């Protein structure tokens, strides 16, 4: 009996110590957010809105077939920029790369400092044929109505191009002079990979030995209800973007008449392989940029959630299981599997001699193309199925510890004082990946507040932005230039 009481007492004591230690960890977590210094940037809002509205009217559309590009629209857009921003075109050097890629160089006063770069793209995706009548306002009208600016590019990404130029024009006219060189770099084919725009810009600058302390591109934004336990909006800054790979699973064999099928047909074997992959999935692992996100938001969480994340070492398996329940958070911690194309057969009563499936993957930092191939082969366990994997791995992970990331944080807080600014892993692709080779850090952040509906509108129907959102984007770009030169 005494022995039992002793054991019970020891367990109780250990439990009390555990509670004290873990609760202390939660209590001692401190905020990683800088104090806001409210912006004093005063934009001519009417003129700025007019400029974005006009920019939308140019059909600078990127098509998968480059032969479909209408470069007269691109020429008109560039002429529009020259007319709309006279101070920039008087005081900054403009160089055109591959005719339509734009580099503006704002000379700084201290040549010992590395430059910074702000980049966006002015090409847009086409409007899906047959959906034109679903738009509340014509997609290339630039209509301004009910405090909203409508049209393709208002979110992706003429808002970035015009936002940056408005900010620089304001700063020049306000007498601001940067200490370090500031480059403004605008691509024209980002929507199809950026190979003729951003990549050519990068190759040009690399040949000249230009190295940036950081380049800031589009990417994450300020969103609400993204992180459990956090009531404030969260501004997510991409410090890396996932790789994009395509795996092809193919099998060839005798076909034959459908009246005498084998137990396992070509279609059945490929379908079975896909089912195995979807049932197995890559292992979730809260690491890298995903882990950084929660380290930055944990101090702002309600106490129960803060308790869990402050003791991540203990609760990590539970956290990972929770994150894996939703597609958006699952993608934050694992390489994804998305079957997108299945090709087999031509006639209803003939067994196909070949079946092929295409799977899109978004790779976590640290996962290689070879890792993906090995995972597929080990999972499907079918030597008759040929597996090939092509694509790109994740970009490098940029620092959150230096002045570069802290400047972005501060600039965002100066404009959005209630937002929590945190690093994260970007799922989609951007031109930023091209700049990795000439920049110590590449960040991905579109300084606007967006909703889940806005995300669907970016490449979909009824893309638009509020006037306030656009004006705040301009203020952010002005603030990041000032913060980087303080």
Automatic annotation (TrEMBL):
Pfam families in the record: M20_dimer, Peptidase_M20
One Gene Ontology molecular-function label: metal ion binding
Keyword terms of this UniProt record: Carboxypeptidase, Hydrolase, Metal-binding, Protease, Zinc
InterPro entries recorded: ArgE/DapE_CS, Bact_exopeptidase_dim_dom, Pept_M20A, Peptidase_M20, Peptidase_M20_dimer
Family, similarity comment: Belongs to the peptidase M20A family.
Protein name: Carboxypeptidase PM20D1
Higher taxonomy: Bacteria, Bacillati, Bacillota, Bacilli, Bacillales
GO aspect biological process, one term: proteolysis
